[in-house]
Structures are given as structure tokens and as C-alpha cells.
Amino acid sequence: MAWSQLLPFAGVVLLGAMSPGPDFAVVLRHSAVGGRVSGMGAALGVATGILVWSVVAAVGVAGLLAASAVAFTVVKLAGAAYLLYLGGKALWAARRGTAGQPEQPAAPPDPRRAFRDGLLCNVLNPKCAVFFVALVPQFLPADPTVADTVLTAAIPVVLTALWFGVVANVVGAMRRLLAIPRVRRALDAVTGTLLVAVGVRLAAQARTVP
Fold this sequence. Notes:
The protein is mainly α. It has 9 helices and no strands.
């Protein structure tokens, strides 16, 4: 892949990673609740999900998923259900905090659960399949080499890990501020609402063939 294609590809991937969405909400909440350790766990989970999609795209399964109405719907509904579950947990935490119940002590970091949430949030999003099927071929030469294929798989993984690693560290550094009950409730309400909204939108989304 030539530099004239490599840099625009990296730019598009980075902008996609930086756009607000379920991955960002999951990393944000785990960073705020569990600090840098949990935030990095979620960030690595999202990056691993991108790696899964890269491999899936390389072997052609992503194209099949994007083209198959049944496969797309199954993954879409599973992803929507998981987002609604995560959003419901956050909203319940916010509601519990406003119901006059005693504040719970800060939970210890749980990077394994954070990794799982980040991974499943990304892997169960069929929009990633459409993204890879629609984007990657535009930047690959007509006869791609092994190096071209490796680059198109590695760049999204590395940039995603770097971006969400920054988010995890910045938000994790603010954990004391975010531990204030009023701030925590507001954060839970915002992230929960975002996750539920994205889950509903994903469930209602029609399949588009790239």
C-alpha cells in the first residue's frame, strides 16, 4: 500500500474510532468506575474486536455477513440486546443513586469484565462488517500483497487501541472527581442513555449492502 493510500486510510480509521458510539461509552464508563486499569481492559477489548473483524474481512466472512439478511439480523439483534443490557445496568446504577440508598463503595478494577464488555460491544456490531467491506477495498491495490493485507488489518487495531488507551488514561486520571456521587450518577445516566439509544437504533437499523 502506497503512502498516498496509507495516510488517508489511517485518517478515516482514526476518525471512525473517535466518533461517539457504544465503544466509546463502554470505555468511558469502565474508566470512570474502575480507573485506568478497567478502562485499558475495555480499550483492549474493543481493539481485539477490531482484530476479529479484520480477520473476518480478510477471509471474506464479513462480506457474507454484510450481504446476508439473516446473518446480519442475528448479529444485529444480539448486539442490540447486549447494548440494552449494558445501558440498563448504567441507568439502574444512576436511579439507585437518586433513590436515597446509601452509596456503594468504589468497586475494585475488573479488567477482565471490562475486556469482555469492550470485545462483545464491538464484535456484536454488524456495522463493523459493513465498514470493513465498504472501506478496505477502496484503499487496496488491484492485486494486494500479503503486506498490504497485514497493514489494512493492523492499522485499525493499533489506532483503535491507541485512541481508546488515551481515553482510558484521561478519564481514569479523573476518577476521584467522577467518584463524587452527583457526578457518578450523571455519568451513569448519560452513558446508560447513550447505550440504550444506540441499542434501539441498532435493532431498528435496516441492512444496507455496500
